[in-house]
Each structure stands twice: as C-alpha cells, then as structure tokens.
Hints:
The structure holds two protein chains of two kinds.
Chain A: E1 4-6, E2 10-13, E3 19-25, E4 31-38, E5 42-51, E6 54-57, E7 65-70, E8 73-78, E9 87-94, E10 101-102, E11 106-110
Chain B: E1 9-13, E2 18-23, E3 32-38, E4 45-50, E5 55-56, E6 61-64, E7 70-75, E8 84-94, E9 97-101, E10 106-111
Parallel strand pairs in B: 1-10
Antiparallel strand pairs in B: 2-7, 3-4, 3-8, 5-6, 6-7, 8-9, 8-10
Amino acid sequence: DVKVTQSSRYLVKRTGEKVFLECVQDMDHENMFWYRQDPGLGLRLIYFSYDVKMKEKGDIPEGYSVSREKKERFSLILESASTNQTSMYLCASTGNTDTQYFGPGTRLTVL
Amino acid sequence: DAKTTQPPSMDCAEGRAANLPCNHSTISGNEYVYWYRQIHSQGPQYIIHGLKNNETNEMASLIITEDRKSSTLILPHATLRDTAVYYCIVSSPHSGTYKYIFGTGTRLKVLA
C-alpha cells in the first residue's frame, strides 16, 4: 500500500514565522502535490513537483514556496506566515498512473 | 479545465444503495473521472476512476454516460462508515502529470 505521511497533524504558529510542512512518500513516486482545503472552497492546488528539484505553480502559489531535494520528500514553506494561511494542508503523490494518494493532512493555525 | 457539479448533500438508509451523481459537461476526451471520499479530518481516499467504460471494484461502481457528460458513483450497500464527503474530480493532463480539479463535493449521510 502507498503511504504518504505528513510531519504534523496539528501545528500552531505566530504571524511572521517561517513554517515548514513536510511530506514523505514511500512508493518512489515521481509526482508530488500540495493542496490547501478551506470550508466552502474544496481543495486547491498550491504547488506540484514532477521530479527532484522540479516544481510548478498550481492555482494559488502566492505566499508559498516548495522544495524537493529528494524524490521521496516534498516540503511546503510559508516564508512569513499570515492568518489567512490558517487551513488544512494536504500532500499527495502519484507514480505511473495519475491516481493521487493523499496524506492525513496538517491543520495549521496561524495566530 | 473541466469542472464538476455535485449536489451538496444526500441521505441514504443503511443497507440501501447510495447513488451519487456528478455533472462534468465540459470534459475532454483524454480526461478521466475520479471519485474520492473524505471522512472528517482525514485525507481524501481514492475510490474508483474511469475514462468511458463503467467500472467496478470492491468499494463501488462507476457508471459514465455514453456522452461522458455525467457519471454516478454507486455504493451498493451503504453502511454508517460510508458517511463522508464524496468528491467527483476530472483529471486533466498537465505538465507531464495530471491535475485534479476538486469541486465542493457531496456530503453523504448514511442513516441507521
């Protein structure tokens, strides 16, 4: 079974802090994705990566950056957290098929 | 990118079939239809997907109309544990991978 893990289930940070959200997959998948989920808006794509050191902006990249130094790990970075980045963050990965496998999510609160 | 439209909520009696509809009238020929579900505070879970033929697996059946403009997810014998938000997604080729466009889903409540 594919396993996608995220570093924290719950995280509380202060405005202006730099925040790292980490995602690890154990199936040698090429593609990895970061989404945020907000009530009434569904899941929205922030960034994705189709190979090590490769990244592409999704639909809402503003205020975020990403890093993919190793194939199994994809990090989402909030350079200076703001209250409007309070959300559920979900990571996913895909291999040869386009079926995305999701992690459990990180609920981030920015105070 | 093709969008999907789903009813916001549905109820189903335990043991009965749950039929969840989805409209995707702007779908293109190379775009797949995917269904996921999300139980509260967890990540979305893959259920089933298809291109143009009907599909069945151990969890559900997927019926896609001939013109591919709509589909129905069928849970044949719903249980209380099937209470969740169900997302119908169109998967579009994008930069060497596939991009999912999520709608707001259908909140299914299975009643005892």
